[in-house]
Each structure stands twice: as structure tokens, then as C-alpha cells.
Amino acid sequence: MIRFMKRIFLILLCCVTVLASVNYYAPAMSYAAAKEEELAALKKKSDELDLQIAEAQKKINGLKGDKSKQEEIAGEYTAQIFAIQQKIDAYNKSIALQQDLADEIQAEITELDNKIADIDAEIKIYQIAIEDCEKNIAETYDILSQRLRAIYMSGESSEIEILLTADSLSTFLMRLELASGIARRDVEIVNGLKENIQMREDQIADQKKAVMEFEEAKQVHAEKKKVHTDKIAEIESFRAIEAANRADEQRKLDEVKERLDEIKNDTAMYEKLKDKYEDQQDELAARMDEIVNDRASLGDGSTAGSLRWPLSPASNTAVSSGYRTAKRPNHSGLDLIYNGGSEGKPIVAAASGKVIVASWQGGYGNCIIIDHGKGTTTLYGHCSRLDKKVGDSVERGEQIALVGNTGYSFGSHLHFEVRINGERKNPQNYVRK
Asked: What's the total number of domains in the chain?
């Protein structure tokens, strides 16, 4: 009885699953819609950046060949680099979003596979139960047939026959009672067999109905699985295209950087460009202030007390330019170098924290910003390579990038900044060699 009630419960559960299939699918569709909106926004941003890159190239084409315009050309190349890096960042985010969506859909496919497997197992149980019932009915029919045949062959004894063959009244009454009992027993046996057959036939009907409901639920799950599988194939195709586009943009970025380096290496242009870019330092730092204020934590700045020297080993490094605000051009951080050459040397996290920026940031070039909590952030600019991405957790002293000469930089070095609640501070008040 308990097993039968369990089966009934599973049938009801199956029915609920079928009826709720639309509601089950709704969260997945809502999740997908949200991701699609983000992807559409990234596509729109990418298109806008294409226009910026094209406009910069148009200006460059108009200035080429005029040596007196090298400064303007350098500015347009820098604008292109910034826009291309933003495109690469957009592609990276797009690919990550698509991966998240694919993972979510794959989890639903796995759940559907499990449900289909459970349904197949239940269908098999019901099919076995149906076979058992059909076998029981056949056996009962055989017993019933044998019993009816025996009753027919034996015939019924009349009261006159019993009286004539009895040698006394007591014998007659005894035989009459016995015959009546046998007749009643035959009726009970026959009726019992008939009731058993009817019960089994009702069970088979219920079991076949349950199988049909399970099959319907299985079909619903299979259809949803196909939709999900098709979507994953679509995502994989789109991700491959995005990855190819990202590679193209990276090649363009490398080419533009090479052209800018050619201008930087022109001795006649060096000092002129350097003066201009230093004059823009306040503007660049202010933009970093906005980014930090938008993304970083707030607090008492107590974590600033645990900062360490961002080049390692510190004993082999020097400060090439200090923090200054008293005279122009201002300098919002420390410029640090390795003795004997800095290009490609390690940059380490000044303290544990979370990366909130890891991309090209105009004059800062390749730049990383780490939020150390409680309002403290550190910035690492002009890197040749970034080893961390946004969202990564880093430990104090862990390598995060390599020293470089990217952005508004004239020689390989690390530009290092410290901010407390978004306000620029003199790093030398917080770090020592």
C-alpha cells in the first residue's frame, strides 16, 4: 500500500512538472534576456569606439608627411590606443558574459537530463508493474476457468437425491448443510477471482495513464533541452567570432603602439612631447580619481599602513621622480625604476586586495588599480604587461604586472599612486624601501 501511494505521489509530481514547465523556463529566459541586454550595450559601445578610431585615423592621414604635426599625430595615436583597448575590454567582457550564459544554460541542460533519467526510471517501473498485473490477470483467469469447469463437471445435488440416498433424517440434514456450504464457497471463490481480475485491470489503466503523463513530461523536458542546446551552439559560434575580433583589435593595438613609439624615439620630439604630457598630468589624475571614486571602497584608510614597496627586491630600485603638488607640472605619484634597467621587471601588490581596473587608461598606459578595503587604493601605471584582471584577488607582494613604457611615458618605469577615499596622497608617507 505504501509503495502504491508513493507511485501516486510521483504521478502527481510529474503532472505538476508538466503544468509548471512555463514557469520553470521563465527564470532561464529572464537570465538570458539580462545577459543579452548587456551584450547589446557592449556592441553599441564597440560601434561607437569604431567611429572614434576611424575619426582619429582620418586626422592622422591628414597630418602624415608634415613633420611639424608629429605632436598632433602622437595625440591621435594615443586616442586610438585608448579606444582600441576599450574595444578589447568590451570583447573580453562580452566573451565572459557569454561564458556565464553558456554555463547557466548547461546547468539547466544537466538538470533536464537528470529529470529525463528519473522519468525513464519511473516509466520502467510502471511497465514492469503492468507486466506483473497482466501476468496476474492471466493466472487468475486460468484459476477461474478451472474452478468453473470443476463446478460444471460435478453438477449440483438436489435435495431429493440427498433424501433418497440418506439412511436417516440426521444423515439427510448433515448432507444438506454440507452441500449448501460447498455451494456458498464456490460462489465466494468465483466472485473473489472476478474481483481480483477487475482490480488488476483498474491498476493497469491507472499505470498506463501514469506512463502517458510521464512521457508527456519527458517530451516537454526534451523540447526545452533542444532549445538550450541550440542556444549553446549559437553562443559558441558567437564567442569564436568575438575572440577573432579581439585578436584583430590586439594586432591593431600593437601596430598603433609601434607607430607611437617611433614618434617617441624621435629625439627632436622627445622633450616637446614630454612637456605636453606632463602638463596633462592633473587631467589624467583627475580622471583616475573619478574611476576610483566610482569603484573603490570607503573607510578610514587604516589599510594604508600595511603598504609595501611595489618593486621587488626593493634594494635594487630607486625613485626617479617624486610626488609633487607645489609646482607645475604636478606629479600625482612616484616614478620607480630598477637599477640597471626596468623593462619587463616585476611589479608586486603593495597590499592584499581586489583588482578594480586592469586595462589601458590613456596617459597611464596599461594600468592596474587595487582596492585594499577601508578606502585605500593603489595605482600602477605604464606597465608593459598586466598579469591580473578586474575582479581578481591579490596577496601582498604577489606579482601583478611588469614594468613598461606605455601611455604618456618616456622610458620604462612604474608610476605608483596611493589614494585614501579617492584623494591622492604622497606614497612616500605610506611605503618605504
From this structure: 2
